[in-house]
Amino acid sequence: SLEKNISLASPTKVELTCKLDENTNLKNPQVTWKKGSETISHTSKTKNSWTIQVTISDRSQLGSYTCIVKDEKEISATFHLHVPKVEGREKPIITYEGDRAVMVCKTEHNSKAWTWYMTNGTELVAINKILHADKFQIKRPSANVNRLEILKLTKKDGGEYWCEASFDLGSSKTRFELRVLSITAPLKPFIAVVAEVAILVVTIVLYEVYSKKKGKGREKEFDQIEQL
């Protein structure tokens, strides 16, 4: 099985072709085209290739188109037609209280509009930069790039954020995870090490004091024995 992804931002006509290698020896190949589970007919045919033309006018025409070649064995190839995906950041963004966080979204096609969301429980709430100008800044360096800056971070700002790009054929989203740590967080490992060292030092001092007392006690015993 072979698969190919095709991004489409606006209505268009697409030509999809399945072509066998010249060295492929199939005596009587039977070819079927399908969109999902629905069988469709091909529009042109040569000795080793089969082509369909698809008119994409709205999102309902997007999806998976598969050609299945049957002979002694079955070969298939699938074309996945979809709205352009939005690229973000897979790993969590980790920063500290009082700092700023930056999130950047990109697409391979120019987006008509961008929308940023933050999660409020289970719901997505659109970020309005006009109402929250002192907290959020949204910038668009180019038609296929968008940038969100969150200022003066607090613990409450941690959570999920979503970036959505809109196209003529629909929209797509990507997710960001923001973690806001307290300023003292980096000091915790150091404090733990200092505490361990302090405990070790106290233990050693107590042991030495105990050893000295025990030694003096033995000296007194020896003195009493000599006197006897």
From TrEMBL:
Instruction: Give the matching Pfam families.
Output: I-set, ig
One GO cellular component term, please give it. neuron projection
Task: Please give the CDD domains that the UniProt record associates with this protein.
Answer: Ig
The residues covered by the Ig-like domain are: 1-78, 84-179
According to the record, the segments passing through the membrane are 190-210
Q: Which UniProt keywords apply?
A: Disulfide bond, Immunoglobulin domain, Membrane, Repeat, Transmembrane, Transmembrane helix
The name on file for this protein is EMB protein
Organism, per UniProt? Thryothorus ludovicianus (Carolina wren)
Tell me the lineage of the source organism.
Eukaryota, Metazoa, Chordata, Craniata, Vertebrata
